[in-house]
Amino acid sequence: MAEQEQTPQRRPGGRSARIQQAVFAAVLEEVVARGYARTTLGAVAERSGVHRTTIYRRWSDLDTLLVEALRDRSGHPVVPRDTGALATDLAAYAQDIVEVLAADTGRIISAVLGSEAARLDGVRGILGEVLTTRRPLSSEIVRRAVARGEAPQGTVDVEVIDHLVAPLYFRLLLTGEPLDEEVARRCAAATAAAVTAGVFVREPGPAS
Amino acid sequence: MAEQEQTPQRRPGGRSARIQQAVFAAVLEEVVARGYARTTLGAVAERSGVHRTTIYRRWSDLDTLLVEALRDRSGHPVVPRDTGALATDLAAYAQDIVEVLAADTGRIISAVLGSEAARLDGVRGILGEVLTTRRPLSSEIVRRAVARGEAPQGTVDVEVIDHLVAPLYFRLLLTGEPLDEEVARRCAAATAAAVTAGVFVREPGPAS
Fold it and tell me: Using H for helix, E for strand and C for coil, what is the string for B50-75?
């Protein structure tokens, strides 16, 4: 069974899937607890309760395992809710991001980006994918606002969303200050004011 | 000479000071080039041209050396210029921060925070000090704006400055997008619009 060439991890709910989830959870917990430089496949085996040889057979090295575990985690981007108005759309999205960052996912992001793992090509790749996947989703907020006449034509959606969430990541990665409803509300209000003022309208080009 | 108990590093311009600066520069360059987990005192010796035994005598371990080198670097916070108006004060400050982050200092911040060094108590301590030292300086901008009637009474200065610079750190640490005059201008304009709209006025408390 263990030597079969077919991909056992594709059977949802099967033993292989359970093993995979246990190993993924264990490697992320190890990185949060000790940092990446001190994480070993042996410690992952111990924490997951999965036999070392099973882990070695499946994942050739720790880098590969970590990248797979992160990819598995990052597969569920926050989908912005349609609340009918720009201010409340931004507030709802900021609150959803706060909930993600204030929970396990935030601890994992912080631990991975604050470790040597931040240098791995695979990690940079996932980060890039998460940011680019998120953008078309979140830019729906801006498109709807422009359609409703709440935001000026030419508002650059990517800039709006980056400004909305940047102070949240600033807290997560730099100041360590709380991620709560208040900061979500403030980020949304600040961004809405800037959008309304036309700050994010694309300029025709440098110096005319 | 080498065995004297007095503190030779205090003589500005002396041999010890030159050695110290060479070693500090070398450890930071090593971390930028290889990451912290792969940096060794031996590599620092080689890069700095300072003999290994001199380094070992002075710094007991790499953690101590890195923290001292970072402290030496972080001793010059950006002092906000007084341009006479909120919008231009914010723009000038954002531009000054962009210049710092787009240069060597940005590469060092990014390399240190994206490595196991981010977990060191000394590094967290310096980061905390930089943020708290910067705040009273940069909050001058808000105080002047309130005095001129450009910002509402009760505007929380810390929040304003964090919102101003957060998108810059977001680019530095997450997206890798360019840090240039355009982003500085946009951050300043967005923050000014939010300040004017009263977004950063302290609320009396949760639910009345």
Answer: CCHHHHHHHCCCHHHHHHHHHHHHCC
